[in-house]
Amino acid sequence: MAHAIDDATIPIHIHDMTVAYHKKPVLWDVDLAVPEGKLVGIVGPNGAGKSTMIKAIMDLVPKASGWVRIYGQPYARMRQTIGYVPQRESVDWDFPIRALDVVLMGRYGHVGWLRRPGKIDREIAESALEKVGMADYRDRQINQLSGGQQQRVFLARALAQDARVYLMDEPFAGVDAATERAIIEILMELRSRDKTMLVVHHDLQTVNQYFDWLVLINMRVVAAGDTATVFTEENLNKTYGGRLTLLSDAAQAVADHQRGVS
Questions:
Q1: For strand 213-218 and strand 39-43, is the pairing parallel, antiparallel, or unpaired?
Q2: How confident is the model over 71-128, as pLDDT tens digits?
Q3: What is 51-114 written as a DSSP string?
Q4: Interior CA angle at 132 toward 87 and 49, to 5°?
């Protein structure tokens, strides 16, 4: 039965979603409608279910209840429209594959797994590597690259896919400052082309610089909306269970942000 609120204009629509591991809820009654063309941060403490939310959107973990729609359709029908940048820790970096071949994987949704990528696909992959500053490393084995370089290659793979929606699980974790700047510049360029990005993020100091829309989560969605409205000390205290006092830099970032928007 179709849901009246399945809206083909909403990039990511989550309704009444609960996810449990070994019968223990990790996400509980999540309702969320992400607007199009926004750079969206997912913020919360460790174990809050941030990565699980990304995986549940992509059907990588089973849902105990609820549903997810991508532009009004189940994920299985919209797989080609979604680019994914996983956590670096979840990738087998010992797999013998060149950086260019990793990026070419982003084209398989367009050419199919049984066909070899053609000249145009290769040009798109080369362009994506150039955009992330990794053109000179195209033939380097992925396990010979630094953590920041590996992250750039995975971002290039997502760019080569030319998706409408991008899901990124801590793309800034463990990278140097130059790589972080390069990544955020690319994300802002994607936003200027009305792409929608959902990004798991852990650094509260940069939230108000990077994201124009925010989801605060701790098993449940505490607050979601424009960063200027949602990024408050009250909401962060609810999200982090009163532990925000331990995060003095973050508390200062919130105070600075609130002064800026008042």
A1: parallel
A2: 999 999 998 899 988 887 666 667 788 999 999 988 876 655 556 777 889 999 999 9
A3: HHHHHHHTTSS--SEEEEEBTTB-HHHHGGGEEEE--GGGS-TTS--BHHHHHHGGGHHHH-TT
A4: 20
